[in-house]
Design goal:
Number of domains: 3
Oligomer: single chain
Order of helices and strands: EEEHHHEEHEHHEHEEEEHEHEHEHEHEH
Shape: globular
Number of strands: 16
CATH class of the largest domain: Mainly Alpha
Distance between the termini: 38 Å
């Protein structure tokens, strides 16, 4: 949750450009004064806190959930939004039997608030660039399968060059990654097989087929060539939750082939699936890069599946379309694109009579 500082109010009539505020992290709100410079016409109507309450209530479709996210009492959120509606003279939320929904005016203000916050963060980051990237923070959201490669490669190199910059890494499924990046809650997203979205810019992608993940002693681990999808359906399957890209494409394939799949294990964790397979409890359907360490150690195998949709899935790097990233984010983005471009040459091919499958 963003910790908001009290806004610094600057009288436009008395503002001197050669005397800027010294705290660059404090948002500036201008007062609109009457011609005599004495009585404010509109002071604090678009208050940061009120807009933040409205934004969270709109995003979560619930005043109570917004209050929980902000750590305040629901009555505070409701009262502040009601006061904002009164001051503006226009309804901002529709009160439904279950939750709330933004009106046209409410959606406009929530969108503007999100853009203001993103622009404010990016402006602060640019000012810090003048200081030589000695300070700053990046927010990244990604699927769990990307963590090992990110830590060992681009992020490790980035921190060696900029050791005072901090990074937040949050894990989520495909749908949540796309939404969070589109809402400017994160600078960069690493996502698996996301559907096209007009709010999103994809910087690069790399082919990462969904494979059958088994133990080396599983009968299908020694199969020469891709495994027919129908041969997988009867097996005890471990699958990700429906919000994840792997599950969505597997469900699409099953429907197209007229095959009913029943998951023995459903989870939001790749690590859980790894242990599920290694314990001999079943098999999983994942891209091979998600279990690279296990493949190298020989504790798991990855076998291609004979289906064009499963062979054509991709990993992607995304940002919000039109967002001007701070320099630190742009530098890390370049490293990430380089990692993806390099991985395009690493095909997951299985040699005849070879049990293991290495990227």
């Amino acid at each position: 949750m963003r910790v908001m500082k009290p806004p610094l109010t600057v009288d436009a009539a008395n503002y001197a450009p050669d005397r800027p505020p010294t705290d660059i992290s404090v948002p500036i709100r201008y007062r609109c004064l009457q011609s005599n410079g004495q009585t404010p016409l509109m002071v604090g109507i678009l208050d940061d806190n009120r807009l933040r309450y409205l934004f969270e209530a709109t995003r979560l479709a619930s005043v109570r959930k917004a209050a929980d996210a902000l750590g305040v009492n629901p009555s505070v959120v409701s009262r502040q939004i009601a006061q904002l509606e009164k001051d503006l003279g226009v309804p901002l939320l529709e009160r439904l039997s279950r939750g709330v929904r933004a009106t046209e005016a409410g959606a406009l203000l929530a969108q503007r608030y999100r853009q203001w916050m993103a622009d404010s963060d990016d402006t602060i980051a640019k000012l810090r660039e003048i200081q030589g990237l000695r300070r700053g923070h990046l927010d990244i959201i990604l699927g769990e399968g990307f963590v090992a490669d990110l830590m060992a490669g681009p992020l490790a190199r980035f921190w060696r060059r900029h050791d005072r910059l901090s990074v937040s890494l949050d894990l989520a499924g495909t749908n949540d990654v796309v939404t969070a990046v589109a809402e400017d809650r994160y600078h960069i997203g690493l996502v698996f097989n996301a559907r096209p979205d007009p709010r999103i810019q994809c910087w690069t992608s790399a082919p990462q087929p969904i494979c059958l993940i088994t133990r080396p002693d599983h009968p299908l681990a020694t199969t020469v060539g891709p495994v027919p999808f129908r041969d997988i359906a009867p097996l005890p399957l471990g699958l990700m939750h429906p919000g994840y890209g792997t599950r969505q494409i597997v469900t699409t394939v099953a429907t197209s082939e007229g095959i009913g799949l029943t998951a023995k294990l459903t989870t939001g964790s790749i690590d859980v699936l790894r242990h599920f397979v290694k314990a001999g409890l079943g098999v999983a359907l994942l891209p091979a890069f998600a279990v690279t360490a296990d493949l190298a150690a020989g504790s798991l195998t990855a076998t291609l599946i004979d289906n064009p949709m499963l062979l054509s899935t991709q990993a992607q790097i995304i940002t919000r379309l039109g967002r001007e990233l701070p320099e630190a984010a742009r530098r890390l983005l370049r490293d990430l694109v380089g990692m993806f471009e390099g991985s395009k040459n690493l095909l997951f091919l299985k040699k005849k009579k070879q049990k293991d499958f290495y990227p």
